[in-house]
Amino acid sequence: MTEIQNSKSKIQNSWEPKILAFLCNWCSYAGADLAGISRLQYPPNVRVIRLPCSARVDPLFILSALQRGADGVLVSGCHPGDCHYLSGNLVARRRFALLKALLDEAGFETDRVHFSWVSAAEGGRFADLIREVTEKVRALGPARQFVKTL
Amino acid sequence: MRRVILAKQKLNDLIRQWVVERTVLAPVKQTTVDFEPVSAANEICSDYRNTRLPLKRLFFQPSEALLRFDFKAAPEQRVTEAPVEARPTVVFGIRPCDARSLVLLDRVFLGQDYRDPYYASRRDATAIVVLGCSRAAPTCFCTSVGGGPADRAGADLFLLDRGDIFVVDVITERGEALMAGLALPEADAETLDRADRAVADVAAAMTVIAGVEQLGPALKAAFDDPRWQEISERCLACAACSFLCPTCHCFDVQDEVLDQKGRRIRNWDSCMFATFTLHASGHNPRTETMQRVRQRVMHKFSYYPENFGVIACVGCGRCIRACPAGNDMRQWLRTLAEACGKESR
Amino acid sequence: MNPLVAQIRETARRLLDEGRVDVVLGFEAGPVALRNAPCFVRGAAEVDRLTWDHFCGLNLAVFLNLSSRRIGVFAKGCDSRAIVNLLKERRLVRENVVIVGVPCPGMADRGKVERWVDAAEVESARLKGDKIVVVAGGKTFEAPIEEMLRDACRECAAPTPTYYDLLLDAEPGRPPATVDAALHARNEPLHESLTTDRAERWRRFEAEAAKCLRCYACRNVCPLCYCRECRADQSDPRWIGTSPNPSDNQLYLLMRALHSAGRCVECGGCVEACPVGVDVRHLFKRLEREVRERFGYVSGADPNQKPPLATFDQADPEDFITDV
User: Fold this and answer.
1) Is the ipTM value over 0.95, yes or no?
2) CA distance A146 to chain B (A)
């Protein structure tokens, strides 16, 4: 109950989406870093968690983040073929496809969960990605599904 | 104790009277028959053996907050007890086995040294109206464990269904309070005799598993009997039996924290779970399914009787219906009685 | 009596007499109607306990996990698929198992029967030709057995096992179909989402999850759920809370579906085992369709086909990727 009331007041008090981004160290995180160094502007709604590889992302990380109040989750790794560990992102790609399908089947607002490939050289693209994801999540409002209330 | 006649058409008057200040729970048929709040007699299912779920969830909840804590709050409000709301309640139509199970749970939660406030406040606020059984279900075995279709244990009022009337035993003061304002005729001897004999016939028709009540000490001696392995061979160690059992009462206490707030929760637990006896050290004395099956049976038929003098099973048969792997407590008891050499007694 | 019963008993007797196995696993009459019990037979004298009908729904592969005994198992299509998956995951020593394939007629859904008899207490159930006759609450009910079969069985692509050591014959002379052939023979879509309305799908999932008691009957009855430490039990870190609250229940059900992706054999055992009637089989079905359509992988068909999440294809579809 408290959680829902907080959500309502969040909307009234210009609520900002809280997005958790899992970025692989070698490509996406470096790309985010490049965006920063290049002084590119993008929405400040993203909290970054750095991992060695997108394959490190267990779907439970994503579900857990949503349970604990993330309005959106982004996972970004190297482009297929460029994985620092050769095939991490390729194995992960299958896993992510299935998670997205599962969330869809359960009636979850799948526009809250995004998967993408961003390379270390794509600072601009990273900024564009954050912009897009933030707007998509903002349009959906505060997350209500899965949210755990104590 | 007085025994009166309540015409079934009058039941609604009674319900309407109770509902004014109390929640009335009774068996209601939806996809299954389970206890739900009712406000009129015609909402009550009249044709059922037993509800799918036992009533222990009313007093001993599947998940319940015991404490709440908030580290952002003022020091004296950091830890608060979770309030227990206990609205006066009448449970109507509970079967003798399930009512008896409440008496068994009372010995655990309302013990001499400690009264569980969460259980107690709800239990104290609840009146129990038992409906004796007109037929046994195929899985019933109450008469093998000290109960029966006419068992009055735990009842404030005890009803026998006699077609267009109920014979009502007004047993406790709380039962008297429930009947206040209704002038009901005392039952005549012939009606009582027929009612009592009918329910005695139900009991007599049930197969009794020999030797169950004497199993307690013998099971201890048979601790290493290979038949434990035999009976647990097809157990999958889930908790379907424990959670549907009216007397199973194990619980687990968890602290759940999100950010700076949290609560301490008590959840149903089951000795059938592989992690039930997992120690913080990593040692687990009951890794094998057989050990856990043995523990569950012995808790109900040996340890609990040793501590409290009664078997912690009421023979409702829900475990048998629920088990996905076809396990049958009656068969287990027969096998074990044989192992202990008790079956000939 | 079903003609397969005689074949089952005879095969069991032979396997035991010849010493090919130490124990034979099949079904015997159970303690409650509609649900037969798994039966371990160790001597030829006991083979007459074995039976076969529409009440043999339990997936027997659940008892084979890491078994060190030499065991002969009477396997329906789904049991056989589960065994194939267990072999892939090295949970079975192939030489220790004799798979006796039994053509499956489809298994009864107890929940369906209970709704059919309007929640009356089922006292007995038997088959009369192609009808099921149930006595419940003192009344007798009769209906075509087809109507009382599990949804999983009605949608089963391969009720006759395609992986076995021996195959019992319901109709002598008819060759068994391969799983792929069976799949193509069915023109109906093998899965459709419950509804195109997302909010409605969510409401239904939420309602199912709210019923869950976290007894884990669904997990424990599944032959493919065998982790020594299940994520649901893991306490460090505690990914999924143990309380039966809506959020943790939802996570548990989603997690189990995801961990079964590409491994589930769609036997419907989880739905049958649930003591409170939770049915989220559509989640598992959706994932099996995704795995089939995206990765060309059929669960339980070919022991040599690599599990889909243990491999990849450079050309795997990227339709779900957010591109800018």
Assistant:
1) no
2) 14
**C291 at interface of A, judged by CB pairs closer than 8 A:** yes
C19-50: buried (b, 16+ CB within 10 Å) or exposed (e) per residue?
eebebbbbbbbbbbbbbbbbbbbeeeebbebb
Identify whether residues B232 and B147 lie together within a single domain.
no
Domain that holds residue B167: 2-204
Q: Do B98 and B194 fall into the same domain?
A: yes
- pTM (2 d.p.): 0.94
Cβ neighbours of C25 in B, within 8 Å: none
Q: Mean pLDDT throughout C257-282? A: 96
* B63 plus B97 within the same structural domain: yes
Q: How many domains does chain C have?
A: 3
Average pLDDT over residues B218-233: 95
Q: Are residues B51 and B163 in the same domain?
A: yes
Q: Where are the beta strands (DSSP E) in chain B?
A: 2-7, 23-29, 33-37, 63-70, 79-81, 89-94, 126-131, 157-161, 165-170, 251-258, 261-268
Q: If contacts are CB pairs under 8 Å, which of residues 67-106 in chain B contact chain A?
A: 68
Q: Which domains does chain A have, with CATH numbers?
A: 17-140 (3.40.50)
Residues of A in contact with C291 (CB under 8 A): 98
Question: Are residue C102 and residue C115 in the same domain, yes or no?
Answer: no
Domain carrying residue C134: 110-148
Report the pLDDT value the prediction gives residue C188, as an integer from 0 to 100.
46
Tens digit of each residue's pLDDT (9 = 90 or more) over B118-146: 999 999 999 999 999 999 999 999 999 99
Percent of the residues in chain B that have a pLDDT greater than 70, as a whole number: 99
Same domain, C101 and C127: no
